[in-house]
Amino acid sequence: MLKQRTIKQQVRTIGVGLHSGTKVELTLRPAAIDTGIVFRRIDLDPIVEFPASAMAVGDTRMASVLIKDGARVSTVEHLMSAAAGLGVDNMYIDVNAEEIPIMDGSASSFVYLLQQAGVEEQQAPKKFIKVIKPVEVRQGKGDAEKWARLSPYDGFKLDFFIEFNHPAVDGTMQRASVDFGDVSYVHDVARARTFGFMQDVESLRGMGLARGGSLENAIVMDEYRILNADGLRYEDEFVRHKILDAIGDLYLVGHPLLAYYTAHKSGHALNNQLLLALLEQPESYEIVSFDTNEAAPQSYLRQMEREWSLT
After folding, report:
1. pLDDT tens digits along 57-99
2. pTM
3. What is the spatial distance between Cα 250 and Cα 272, in angstroms, rounded to a whole number?
4. Whole-number Å distance between alpha carbons of 157 and 177
């Protein structure tokens, strides 16, 4: 039986919120079978719990934000991406502010935290959402058109194309494809950082966003070049970060996907719309489990073996 997983022990870290600029304490705790990923605002009285859910996403400006009873927990996508990449099904995430800390702008700090906690298999079958009919959402027209699609696939593969019309971005690869049957989330995706443009900072801060952003937690560009002294971690780091984000956004559906995700200039909003479109079409998916490892997608088994052998 392909089993559900939680973490072995509680782990804790401290960081800064990218948009709020405030100090944040984050604690990851084990959770029981079928709990899912649950964020908890422990600074509120009473504590507010936010089960990871596509239907709980209430704001997608620059991040995926879960909203419940007027309370928010923001920038969940990088931590959700790490949980998806390492196959964690059940976990409590305690946070004492309205935003998950940005750390270095990638998912690598969260991967390290999960590796420190360790993984523990639970005596219940892992549940997957298997896409059986294509689902697509589109927005805009002509050069402004954006789209995202989920298609049937025996595993999990992502193909993403970006277009920013900026010299620093145009000089890199703007399309990337990642099949987790062949590559490592930890090595090939998790280290890709978020990015932004200096000319946008003032307007974003006027909106209450990007107050904690710096060269320590983002790739920052002026009109012509990358300002970070160390340059890029991957030659296609920009589009690879969009894949990292998409993995986290898609894991908000509540279970790992067996699907092929393709997207053109998508973002948090369109990714959420894609999940909602999927859930609104019950004929397009089924929830499956696997009684034996032989019956499970071999690409998923290779992925889990690969990621946890790296710890």
Report:
1. 999 988 999 999 999 999 999 999 999 999 999 999 999 999 9
2. 0.94
3. 7
4. 7
Would the pLDDT of 228 be above 60?
A: yes
Q: Which of 273, 286, 16 is nearest to 131 (CA)?
A: 286
How far from 310 is each of 88, 113, 192, CA to CA, in Å? 16, 14, 18
Q: What does the block give as tokens for 24?
A: 């944040």
Nearest to 86 by CA among 163, 171, 7, 33: 7
Q: Which of 78, 241, 255, 268 is catalytic?
A: 268
User: Which residues does 139 contact at the CB level (< 8 Å), separation at least 6?
Assistant: 145, 146, 147, 270, 273
Q: Which domains are seen in the chain, by residue range? A: 3-125 (3.30.230.20), 128-296 (3.30.1700.10)
Comparing 27-41, 208-222, 249-263, the range with the smallest average pLDDT is: 208-222
Per the annotation, the verdict on 268 as an active-site residue is yes
C-alpha R_g of the chain: 18
